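Postdoc handover notes: sequence design on the structure in folder B. Input tokens:
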């Protein structure tokens, strides 16, 4: 019997061609009204779901899939996957760790350089035929102090890169890591006080919600730069906008926002903000590797049944 799989989020291009022959695939309509009717029709037969870390597995969707056994998600964040519901229902959740670490760390470095060296502002000037007109100087990155909030896989890959820029490195997370030579701070405020660049790369979800708030911005100070490649929910966004407008911090490089894909006008209007659309892992190489993981995770889960069908 065919195994029914729901495609619930945008996936790398190598995913669907590999699965079409093995499974019966159903694309979830984007329009809410259409999705409701569609789920009433096919929801009862769905056993696997493909999604991505940003789209996640909303509670309402999960409740329309009573026979769901596995969620295969592209990405490493699980904050949008409703892990507690999945666990309670015995649904296996598989992500794509390991393959995106290096590119996200590169993405953080790109945002650090783009903000400190005013690259986007400079580029806008050239395109507008203004060359150097009214373009303030940038600031050096080499030798400045880097604070990493979340020294996990990506945080450590970032630290390695920052060492090449002669940056003293410090970090905060719940547990001190005895295997790294970097200075540990037991709070985000203390880390921010000791940083010129504060890079956020902790998971999202309730435990880190608004962890980077007004107190952190004031500790980072008027020459400090915030870069967020983790999750928008970790930063108090209205307070960040106020801090940027008031010059309480120098600049921000944001790959992730609180309510993606909504971008507040206030952020768009600020010259000292560099924005990218949750794009830190957005290279062809990484996305194809993530796609392969998504495929392999699903094939592995249904391996026995698929062999029987071959
Ligand atoms: P890891 O699990 O390897 O590292 C996460 C780190 O965060 C750990 O060192 C952990 O340390 C720390 N941490 C977790 N919870 C807290 C907390 N409540 N307070 C303080 N520190 C905490 O994950 P990765 O490095 O692979 O990825 C990190 C996150 O990056 C992902 O969860 C995802 O949200 C985001 N991401 C963003 C991408 C993008 O495109 N922008 C792409 C990929 C990932 P400890 O347990 O000691 O607290």
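Designed sequence:
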């Amino acid at each position: 019997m065919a195994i029914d799989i729901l495609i619930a989020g945008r996936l790398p291009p190598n995913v669907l061609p590999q699965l079409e022959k093995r499974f019966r695939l159903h694309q979830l309509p984007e329009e809410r009204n259409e999705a409701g009717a569609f789920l009433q029709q096919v929801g009862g037969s769905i056993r696997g779901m493909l999604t991505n870390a940003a789209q996640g597995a909303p509670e309402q969707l999960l409740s329309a899939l009573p026979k769901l056994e596995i969620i295969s998600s592209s990405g490493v964040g699980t904050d949008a996957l409703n892990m507690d519901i999945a666990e309670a229902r015995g649904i296996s959740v598989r992500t794509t760790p390991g393959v995106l670490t290096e590119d996200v760390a590169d993405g953080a470095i790109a945002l650090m350089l783009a903000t400190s060296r005013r690259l986007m502002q400079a580029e806008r000037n050239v395109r507008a035929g203004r060359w150097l007109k009214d373009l303030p100087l940038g600031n050096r990155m080499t030798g400045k102090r880097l604070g990493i909030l979340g020294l996990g896989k990506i945080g450590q890959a970032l630290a390695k890169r920052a060492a090449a820029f002669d940056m003293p490195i410090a970090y905060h997370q719940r547990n001190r890591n005895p295997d790294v030579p970097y200075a540990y701070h037991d709070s985000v405020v203390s880390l921010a006080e000791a940083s010129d660049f504060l890079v956020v790369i902790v998971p999202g979800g309730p435990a880190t919600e608004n962890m980077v708030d007004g107190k952190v911005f004031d500790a980072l100070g008027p020459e400090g730069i915030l870069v967020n490649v983790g999750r928008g929910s970790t930063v108090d966004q209205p307070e960040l906008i106020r801090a940027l407008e008031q010059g309480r911090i120098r600049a921000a490089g944001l790959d992730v926002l609180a309510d993606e894909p909504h971008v507040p006008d206030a952020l768009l209007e600020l010259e000292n903000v560099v924005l990218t659309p949750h794009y830190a892992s957005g290279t062809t190489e990484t996305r194809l590797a993530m796609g392969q993981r998504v495929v392999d995770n699903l094939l592995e889960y249904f391996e026995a049944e698929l062999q029987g069908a071959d």
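Context for whoever picks this up: Residues 284-301 form the longest helix (18 residues). Don't rerun without checking with the PI first.
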